[in-house]
Amino acid sequence: MAFWAATRGLTPPSKVPPMLNPNQRQFLEDELRFRNKMQLLAGEPIHNLDDVYVRKAEAVDDPNELDKHDSFYHTTKSLLVLFQIMGVMPIHRNPPIDNMPRTGYSWLSKQVLWAVSIYTCQTTIVVLVLRERVKKFINSPDKRFDEAIYNVIFISLLFTNFLLPIASWRHGPQVAIFKNMWTNYQYKFFKTTGSPIVFPNLYVLTYNLCIFSWLLSIAINLSQYFLQPDFKLWYTFAYYPIIAMLNCFCSLWYINCNAFGTASRALADALETTIQGSKPAHKLTEYRHLWVDLSHMMQQLGRAYSNMYGMYCLVIFFTTIIATYGSISEIIDHGATYKEVGLFVIVFYCMGLLYIICNEAHYASRKVGLDFQTKLLNINLTAVDMPHRRRWKCFWWP
């Protein structure tokens, strides 16, 4: 365009500034601030000291202090211990040594060896029940449609046991990273705000969920024993740990999502209190880093549990569809019986699990994202000077 204007004696148009998205703009500003920081350290003069703020280098924290402020671990320890006993997630707590993460995972640890032992015993029972059900399904003279549906449902639930090493154990290192991020975040939050993150009633809730997960598993299996004529009592010993494991996974997801909501509310309240104090600009950068770290923790939650909950939801969704279709079609053809009641128990159970997973994920993302930003917008900045407002803008480019 400039060449075309020059050949015709016209004034070339001015350059159009590039349009940057928020991430590109934040990256550019971080690079400029880093350059100014380097100039400051080299003794060269810079024009505006208020614009020099970059994330401080991570310091090695005292492991005893990390333990002292790790309330999330202490309040949810009962569920982690239950996972270790069941062999579901064999992570362990490292001794308080400098430069060593507080939570670790090792294939040679005693927790993993215990998990392998428990899994071997459990798999033996599952194989016996699976063999019995497949044999009965093949050799049964009654080839009714409802009998096929029942066997498909209960066989699919048994296959959940074989997914455990792939979906859970393989991602143990990522789960340990996620737990360590929570440990470090709580201490960093305390150093920045001067107050810890309080998780009200989380200890009692976690402890009750551990008990409720097994009680619900026993109730569901016994209901199938009484409602299904071909469901023998010794079959239940293969399904007890499987249903309890699904319940514990749902409990863990509920606790993690609620913890994110609690941390987001605590951060927003502390930020609002800081804004109302004197010279809040010196703290705004640290608050922004806390918010970004909270977002990174949610990403790590996905990396640690995505495979596990992906397979988990597929099994539940498949079981829900098959049980719903089988029960409704059987009621239309032959009327309602106790078998259909047993299938409806499974349907409502699976739908409840799916609802909790989806609803809690939406709750956590909304608390960390939309609700936190709404609270930022509602804070009055009219009494704050221009350098403080520039610091405030950093929140909108995470």
Automatic annotation (TrEMBL):
Membrane spanning stretches: 112-130, 150-169, 202-222, 234-255, 309-328, 340-357
GO BP, sorted A to Z: sensory perception of taste; signal transduction
Keywords per UniProt: Cell membrane, Membrane, Receptor, Transducer, Transmembrane, Transmembrane helix
Localization annotation: Cell membrane
Major location category of this protein: membrane
Topology within the bilayer: Multi-pass membrane protein
GO cellular component: a single term: plasma membrane
Pfam families noted in UniProt: 7tm_7
Source domain of life: Eukaryota
Protein task: Gustatory receptor which mediates acceptance or avoidance behavior, depending on its substrates.
Family: Belongs to the insect chemoreceptor superfamily. Gustatory receptor (GR) family.
Protein name: Gustatory receptor
Species: Drosophila lebanonensis (Fruit fly)
